[in-house]
C-alpha cells in the first residue's frame, strides 16, 4: 500500500493525523513512547558495560544499544505500511502518536492559567511537566520564560521535525525520528554515565534534526517579527550549546521579541546560558503568543504540504 504516500494521499494522511490529535489529544492511559522508554531501559541494562568504563567500549555499546532499539520498530513500520488493510490506517496512527500539538498547547495553558490566578506553586508544578530544569524556586517571570522556551523548542521536536520526516520517508521515517529523539532525551547527557554511552543517540538526534530545526526557525521568523528573528538567529544561535535548539529558540525569541535564555538551574547546579531574543522580559501573556505562533506555523506547513503535493502531481502528470 505504498501508493498511499503518493502526491494526493500524503497531505490527506498528514491532515488526518493532525485532526486526530486535535480531537483526541495525547493518549491518557498508555502512550507508545512510554512503552518505548521501558524497552530502551531494558536495552540499556543489557548493553551498558558493567566491568569496564573505557571510552571506546562505551561508544561501541552505546551505538549497539541505539541500533537494537531503533531497528525492530523501523523494520516493523516498513512492513506494516505495505499491508493492504493495515497500511491504509497505520501511517495516520503512527503520525498521530509521534506529534503532540494539542498536548503542548494544553501543558502551556495550565501554566498560563496558574499564573493568571496568581498561583505560583501551581504554575511551578505545571511547568515542571514541560522542562527538565529545577522549578521550585522560579518566580513568575522565570516560570513564563521556561514555558515559552519549551513551547518554541518542542514546536520543532514534537511537531515539525516529525512532520518533516513523515513527508520525507513516511511512517518508517517518523518512527526513526521519534525513537531517536526519545533516546536522546534518555541517554544524551554529558555526565559520567552517558558522556560516551549516549554519544550515538545524541549525534543521531542532531543529524535528524538539522534540517527540520532550520525550517522551524525560518517558519518562526516568517510568521513573527521577521527582521528581529533573522538577526537573533544569525548572531545568537551559534552561542547556544545545542546546534539545533539554538536556531529554533533564537529565531522564536526574536519573532516574539522577548528575552529568553540566561541562568537556569539543572540538578542543583546553576548554568549560565546565552541570552536569546530581545525586547521585553517574558510575561504570562507571551505563553499564549508562543502557542499561537506554533499553531500558525502548523497550519502553514499543512498548506504547503498540500500545495507542494499538487505541484509535484502536475509536474509528473
UniProtKB/TrEMBL annotation:
Membrane-spanning segments: 58-78, 85-104, 158-177, 297-315
Keyword list, A-Z: Cell membrane, Cobalamin biosynthesis, Membrane, Transmembrane, Transmembrane helix
Any one GO CC term of the record: plasma membrane
InterPro entries tied to this protein: Cobalamin_biosynth_CobD/CbiB
Keyword Transmembrane helix tagged: yes
Membrane topology, as annotated: Multi-pass membrane protein
Predominant location category: membrane
Cellular location(s): Cell membrane
Keyword Cell membrane recorded: yes
A GO MF label: ABC-type vitamin B12 transporter activity
Membership in a protein family: Belongs to the CobD/CbiB family.
PANTHER family: COBALAMIN BIOSYNTHESIS PROTEIN CBIB (PTHR34308:SF1)
Name of the molecule in the record: Cobalamin biosynthesis protein CobD
Natural source organism: Ferriphaselus amnicola
Amino acid at each position: 500500500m505504498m501508493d498511499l504516500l503518493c502526491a494526493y494521499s500524503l497531505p490527506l494522511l498528514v491532515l488526518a493525523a493532525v485532526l486526530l490529535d486535535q480531537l483526541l489529544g495525547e493518549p491518557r492511559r498508555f502512550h507508545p513512547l512510554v512503552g518505548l522508554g521501558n524497552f530502551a531501559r531494558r536495552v540499556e541494562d543489557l548493553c551498558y558495560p558493567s566491568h569496564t568504563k573505557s571510552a571506546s567500549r562505551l561508544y561501541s555499546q552505546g551505538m549497539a544499544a541505539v541500533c537494537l532499539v531503533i531497528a525492530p520498530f523501523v523494520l516493523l513500520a516498513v512492513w506494516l505500511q505495505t499491508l493492504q488493510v493495515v497500511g491504509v490506517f497505520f501511517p495516520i496512527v503512527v503520525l498521530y502518536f509521534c506529534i503532540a500539538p494539542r498536548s503542548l498547547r494544553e501543558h502551556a495553558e495550565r501554566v498560563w492559567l496558574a499564573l493568571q490566578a496568581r498561583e505560583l506553586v501551581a504554575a511551578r508544578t505545571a511547568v515542571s511537566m514541560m522542562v527538565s530544569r529545577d522549578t521550585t524556586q522560579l518566580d513568575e517571570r522565570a516560570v513564563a520564560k521556561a514555558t515559552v522556551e519549551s513551547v518554541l523548542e518542542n514546536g520543532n521536536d514534537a511537531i515539525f521535525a516529525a512532520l518533516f520526516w513523515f513527508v520525507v520517508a513516511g511512517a518508517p521515517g517518523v518512527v526513526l525520528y521519534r525513537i531517536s529523539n526519545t533516546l536522546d532525551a534518555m541517554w544524551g547527557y554529558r555526565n559520567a554515565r552517558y558522556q560516551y554511552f549516549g554519544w550515538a543517540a545524541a549525534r543521531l538526534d542532531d543529524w535528524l534534526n538539522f534540517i527540520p530545526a532550520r525550517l522551524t526557525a525560518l517558519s518562526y521568523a516568517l510568521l513573527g517579527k521577521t527582521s528581529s528573528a533573522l538577526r537573533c538567529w544569525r548572531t545568537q544561535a551559534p552561542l547556544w550549546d545545542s546546534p539545533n535548539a539554538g536556531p529554533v529558540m533564537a529565531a522564536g525569541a526574536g519573532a516574539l521579541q522577548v528575552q529568553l535564555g540566561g541562568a537556569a538551574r539543572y540538578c542543583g547546579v546553576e548554568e549560565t546560558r546565552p541570552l536569546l531574543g530581545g525586547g521585553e522580559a517574558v510575561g504570562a501573556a507571551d505563553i499564549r503568543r508562543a502557542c499561537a505562533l506554533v499553531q500558525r506555523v502548523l497550519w502553514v506547513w499543512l498548506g504547503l504540504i498540500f500545495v507542494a503535493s499538487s505541484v509535484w502531481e502536475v509536474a509528473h502528470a
